[in-house]
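FORM 12-B: Structure-to-Sequence Request
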């Protein structure tokens, strides 16, 4: 007999497994640019925080880096291992939280996180741990959401909040998209700069977006699964109506403002 000791958050994020790679596909432009911002060298020791299915980890390994990816969700770790077979050098993946990294001080030459660490419930602890495991002169690269209150990302998570009974997060992931907050949060540990980027999701129709998210994105899948059967069609209808605002003659084009942040450990 086995006992599931996962937190609700780990279970939610990990439930889609390899299907989450479809979400990473939709973020591939900014993930690639964030790896460029890190510019991992061959042989460099790189940590990927909130690795998900390991998309950024594989790109860094393709550059020859020795990558360790961590995630709170065992489902994501299993998916990342499966999807990274055949990569040389093969990334290593393990379950761990950003707020309690199981690594020695100054263990890594660089740290990356693409829309991962921003969901930490204790951002200052996560930043302190990130700084602790990065060697002096080591590099940092992050991708974070930087949306306006009326923008797509804010509206997307607002829609989920309307249909979910889950409590709001203890810390806002949108803080990581504010350059003033970032400068204060990283002050004394990293010298950083933030550059605006727009990552655009292209899709043929709203039905495709629904399928990708309900099968691949934990918060949407969990919200849908928790609803009574007679409310599931209404949730899908609201989701698709929200996305129809981004239709063009040739399909959807959804702009999502982000920041690419790079830094050097002081």
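FORM 12-B RESPONSE
SEQUENCE OUT:
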């Amino acid at each position: 007999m086995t006992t599931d000791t996962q937190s609700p958050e780990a279970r939610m994020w990990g439930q889609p497994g390899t299907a989450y790679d479809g979400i990473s596909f939709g973020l591939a432009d900014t993930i690639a640019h964030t790896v460029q911002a890190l510019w991992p060298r061959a042989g460099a020791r790189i940590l990927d925080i909130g690795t998900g299915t390991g998309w950024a980890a594989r790109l860094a390994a393709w550059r020859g880096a020795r990558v360790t990816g961590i995630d709170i969700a065992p489902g994501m770790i299993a998916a990342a291992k499966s999807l990274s077979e055949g990569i040389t050098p093969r990334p290593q993946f393990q379950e761990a939280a950003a707020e309690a990294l199981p690594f020695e001080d100054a263990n890594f030459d660089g740290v990356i996180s693409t829309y991962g660490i921003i969901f930490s419930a204790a951002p200052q602890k996560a930043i302190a741990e990130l700084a602790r495991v990065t060697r002096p002169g080591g590099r940092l690269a992050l991708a974070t959401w930087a949306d306006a209150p009326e923008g797509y990302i804010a509206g997307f998570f607002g829609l989920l909040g309307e249909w979910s009974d889950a409590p709001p997060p203890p810390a806002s992931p949108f803080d990581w998209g504010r350059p003033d907050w970032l400068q204060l949060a990283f002050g004394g540990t990293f010298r950083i700069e933030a550059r605006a980027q727009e990552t655009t999701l292209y899709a043929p129709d709203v039905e495709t977006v629904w399928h990708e998210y309900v099968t691949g994105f934990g918060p949407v899948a969990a919200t849908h699964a928790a609803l009574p059967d007679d409310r599931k069609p209404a949730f899908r209808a609201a989701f698709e109506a929200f996305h129809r605002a981004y239709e063009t003659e040739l399909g959807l084009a959804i702009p999502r403002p982000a920041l690419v942040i790079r830094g050097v450990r002081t």
